[in-house]
Amino acid sequence: MHKIFIILITLIQFSCNTKQDDNKFIYYVIKNVNRNPKLPSPPSIYYGNHNFILIDTSKIFYHNKYVYYYCGTGVDFNKPPRLFLAPKSLTEIKIKDLQAFLSNNIPDNMFRGCYVSSSISSPGDTIQNRGFKIIVDYFKIKKIGRYVIRNWTEEEQFVVTAKIKNIPYDPSKVEWKVGFDIKFIPPRETIPE
């Protein structure tokens, strides 16, 4: 009877292992919520000075293209700006090199008198990429509070897919479903003929 008790205790101990597999851990679920339905939602920010695209559990792409708006006149904030990304615009960062990349490429919260901004995007609503925690922890250390976590844009989707699959990318042949924001073009005086 004593041997059965020891075997039973041993089995219970091994079955109660609480160690989590890092590849299965969900870091973040993207959720857009308007906290006050009586007020319109604030404008969506798509890109910052530093943009990360997190794919699967460990694939990380980076680009630093963005559009800076002085004011929002004529801009449709429901659509992202067109960045004219290309596969060569993206840098792939290995998970083991991410911390060094952040330290070497992203300054403190202020850079040349301006706040640093960033975006973290993902193809799905659930981010399981291990790089997410490394990036957000770095932002906390550097006090970078201007960043958005969002689903990737169509432009990012097509460019990343072309880069991963090593296929040609021609934006003129893409059928954009969402499209891009509208730029304000100031009226010009007509020139008499």
The poorly predicted ranges are none
Helix content: 10-25%
Report how far the terminal alpha carbons are from each other.
108 Å
Mean pLDDT: 78
Q: Count structural domains.
A: 1
What share of the residues does DSSP label as strand, in percent?
Answer: 15-25%
Strand order of the largest sheet: 4-3-2-7-9
SSE topology string: HEEEEHEEEEHEH
Largest sheet: 5 strands, mixed
Got a strand count? 9
| Shape summary | globular
Q: How many DSSP H or I helices?
A: 4
Description:
The structure is a single chain. By secondary structure, the protein is an alpha/beta fold. It has one domain (22-31, 41-171). Helix content is 24%, strand content 18%. It has four helices and nine strands; from the N terminus they run H-E-E-E-E-H-E-E-E-E-H-E-H. The chain has helices at 2-15, 98-105, 131-142, 154-165, and strands at residues 28-29, 50-55, 59-63, 91-93, 110-111, 114-115, 117-122, 126-127, 146-151. It has a five-stranded mixed β-sheet, with no helix packed on it. A hairpin with a 2-residue loop joins strand 5 and strand 6. It is globular. The model has no long low-confidence stretch (mean pLDDT 78).
